[in-house]
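Shape matters. Shown next:

___
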Amino acid sequence: MNTLLFILSFIATFTGKVVDEKGNPIPYATVYPQTQPEFGTATNNDGQFSFTADLTDYSEVIISFIGYEKQTVPASILKDGNATITMHEQPIALEETVIAAKAHKQRNKRKKMAALLHAVYLKLEEEFPDENAQYQIVSDVRMQSEGSTWGMEQMIANVVVLPEIGREGRDSVQFQGRFCKRFFDSRKRAEADELLAGDAIERIEKKQKEKFMRKAANAIDSGVVVHRALFAMGHMKHNFEESMGDLKHWRVSNESEGETVLTHTEKISKYLGFFRMEYKRHYIIDSETYAVRRFSEHAEVKVTIPFGIRLNADQLQMLNLLNMDEHRIEKFRLKKLRAAVDLNTIFQRRDGQVYTLEKNMILNAHIIGSKKAEIPVNIKATQRVTGLETKDVHPLHPSQITKRLKREIVEIY
């Protein structure tokens, strides 16, 4: 006699709380079903969350926050409302790799360095495919002020990577937004609405979109530019090829657990020194196979504008949004910009090939005006791959990547 087993799905509300290892709540952590991320949500200021979806007991729910290890739990434990999920710090995320070896122990002789770089290059050629790939991703971009998050945009998207048609050896990235939610602290949202005087953001987005449409045949919804840009950042293979011959700016050190860190440093100075940038790229490789396990970048930028730039009304509105906790700014002459950016890429392996699994980015910037006025800007972004297709992947049609994507506004309390 055959026994038929049915896995029943059910529409239910799933609730819980997300905390760190000390028991402190984590606001704006992302919570979503693995196969239905569009039903996901964000935790509120107390770390609590609630969402409704059609799931089975065995459906997986993802909980993530930048700087912490991603947690995966079965939907069944979130049905009674008493679940607490503890997040653990993820040391590799967005920390500049420490080069610990002393100078006299570093294997930095040019012949050895050239041989090592060549071995890594051959492994990159072997493992990173030149075939099209399609990703399904969840992309979160958080805006912060004085250490607290006041808003987050979450976008669920399809991304098609087309290596063969990329310019200058870079992958061509097509980005199709599917669902989008904007989460706001209710108090901060009210302040932002007052500052922005209604449709200021939409007017700015419209201007950006029109400009982008004129310049690019594959223009996309301007609202997804930041999400697309994050996925397109970190041209690891291309950057490695470009800098292989620059032996004097490479260094190497051995780390624990069979990993070697290769670091390339590039310094750029333009316009009589008014623009300065230092760029470090860290390739974390397996010491035996030379396979790249992770890739991170750290950039520091300083810009000086000799006579300053006076901001117009729209720019002042955006500046006030960034400066919400302080006094209202009526005029501002931009004199300096200072920023530090960290980008971290984690890879996954499938059928002997290597693909992106997760990208994280932290931007800490300071906008400096006349009379020593200084405004901090903090952005944290995370993109996680929820699905990957590598067979029979075709480019997206232009209509799929130019359609304006509706935003759902969600206030958290």
Summary: Residues 1-6, 93-104, 216-220 have pLDDT under 50 and may be disordered. The helical segments are 110-127, 186-196, 200-215, 225-232, 236-243, 313-322, 398-402. The longest helix spans residues 110-127. The radius of gyration is 23 Å.
